[in-house]
Write a structure and sequence with these properties.
This protein is an alpha/beta fold and 728 residues long. It has 4 domains: 25-221 and 260-277, Rossmann fold, CATH 3.40.50; 302-434, Rossmann fold (3-Layer(aba) Sandwich), CATH 3.40.50; 456-514, no CATH class; 522-726, Dehydroquinate synthase-like, alpha domain (Up-down Bundle), CATH 1.20.1090. The chain is built from 24 helices and 17 strands. The strands form 4 sheets. It has a 7-stranded mixed sheet, sandwiched between helices. The longest helix has 31 residues, at 265-295. The radius of gyration is 31 Å and the shape is globular. The protein starts with a helix and ends with a helix.
Amino acid sequence: MSDQQQSTTQAFPSSDQQQSSTQAFVKKTAAQRKLYESGNELAAYAAKQINYHIMGYYPITPSTQIAENLDLSGARGEHNIRLIAAEGEHSAAGICYGASAGGGRVFNATSANGLLYALEQFPVQSGTRMPMVMNVACRTVSGPLCIKGDHSDIMYLLNTGWIILFADDPQMVYDFNLIALKLAEKVNLPVVVAFDGFFTSHQKQKCMVFSEDETVQHFIGKKLSCDNPEISAFAGNDSTGENRFYSVLDLNHPVSVGSYMNEPDIINNKYQLFLAMEETRKKLPMLFDEFASLSGRMHTFCRGYLCEDADIILFLLGSSFHPATVAADTLRKEGIRAGVVTLNVLRPFPSDELRHLCMHAKTIVAADRQDSYGAGGGNMSLELRAALQDITDSTHPIRVLTRIYGLGGKDFFVEDAVALFREGLSPDARAFDYYGITPGTTENCPQPQYYAPLTKDRQSPGVTTCTFDPATGKMLVKGGLIKDATAMPKRIAPGIGTCPGCGIPVNLNLLLKGIEGNVVFLFQTGCGIVDIMMHTLERYLTPEGGESDLTDRIAEGLLIATRDAGRRAIADPRDYEARATLMWAGSVSHNDYTGCGRKRLFPVHKLEHELSAFRDEIAHGAGLSVLFPAWAEHEMQYDYPRFAQFANRVLGVEMDFEHPERTAREGIRTLRRFFEEIGMPTHLSQLGIKPENYEKLAANTVRTVNGPVKSYSPLDEKAIIEIYRLAE
């Protein structure tokens, strides 16, 4: 590919080229390794490899993990970053500003109201041209208080003079963090790497990272410093003839930073900021090319999917891009030419690139995860409309519909993307609307006195007395229960009303009521019993197991002990010996004692993981108790003697030597009855899984394991659906 061709591809990439941020661009020239990490973890990993001088930070959900992971890796001696915990986000931003002004490489991470608390700092940092990198795990701006992800926080940064990169998956979080610092020092502007809180920030994916920290540090280059003899000093240039640098610590060349300005100086300063942002338009494509040659991953200002001939395009930011592409594929099967567009750079806004991707569309549904209230759309849809004015005329009118969606972290599924596409296909669709709202009613409105005032009597714990009972040798405590002092007024809305980490004040009364005695959740006990047994059963019933009578006997003994102790623990949660046995069995079942000499395949675990992913209220043990008997019914034909041995030795089923299949079947029935005895589900309907879900679950399972699930027989989608049928 020629340099000219590369440049053209960079500016206006095709949909096929942009389908995945991990798509190979050229042959990788740097060693990489695979990690299974979240966006937060990869942001910290990138910072570790860069080895920043300073991180000023204040914890706020959902960005807190970034600092936590950096702290852990620092404790392991993997970097020399000085982490400085501030008394608030405003102070954290100030720490970063001071360190940058002194010539340091600095890093920050924040979210939501924490970002707003520091907001006045950000124009100062860009206006005085201090390079730094800040990660924003995007979250709803309060109120009311909400900790889940949307884009209402990042939009406050649009007018601050910061470059804003937006990552839609964890791989891009890693890549953009490396590109961001180099870009910041190229144009002397601070850079944000933004991504969806709790979606991209917490969800793990397989990603590629550079094997050696030195690769990253060589890519970024050395930091200009007034006291580094290897690099140009004050107001000098780096090896490329760029990057003028100033330091307030260079006493031989004193400078004034952020001093007071009036007209006409201030407008000149802002014009220089404008020029720096325009320079970013030129520098960033070159950095994308350089990074692609190093990593094999090409990034662009915009990403398009199936846009070349699209009549209707769904435009959105962040992690929603991925279900939207699946929705586009679904509509294509119906003959509807659907495409998807997202932005990876918000500032500078990529108007030309965006127009190129959208120029053939008849309708664009602009989905904003944020609303600019009263403006008829969120910031991105408004800027999209402005960008399209140059190509929209009477001969080629582009209808743009705006939909506000996903506020407060409301999930966005493929079905939702399909629904937005279909709204765009309707000629009567409103130009602006909210998607996914639940209309309320006035029938059950609270009465004026719903919030009953708290009285002294309701909050008085009374007198506590404590006397010794010689008969029992115990102290008898009466009255004065602490929980009586925690009475609270009723609340209109259900739920805790605050984040899990901050919700104790609201729920302290419930908490204290709960811990007055020993609290045992029998269902969770049952889940533990099932999982302990499964970790051994999936080692015991395997097609790739060698003959080992000792391993068999260890496994059979553990299964019997777990069954018997499980019954006692469910019947009497205070049975210490039973629970001690379960704890010991859990350790032995998981440390491979019961699988010595055999290869682990764990097909039932792989089947169950998709159930728990599909409905997060499905406990792992509950999914196993439903699927294992069905899997056993499906697979026992390949090794009747083995399944019969289990039924006889562990469950006490009489062996039918002439017809071992009868023993095997009775063993499965006996195990299913045991699961029911300890309160565990044994049917998919009990988990809320419906037959119409089977195909999707089976397809997800095969896709997750990259092919049929290894078992006695290869479990493809058809076989998995057969197992679901047996579990109905």
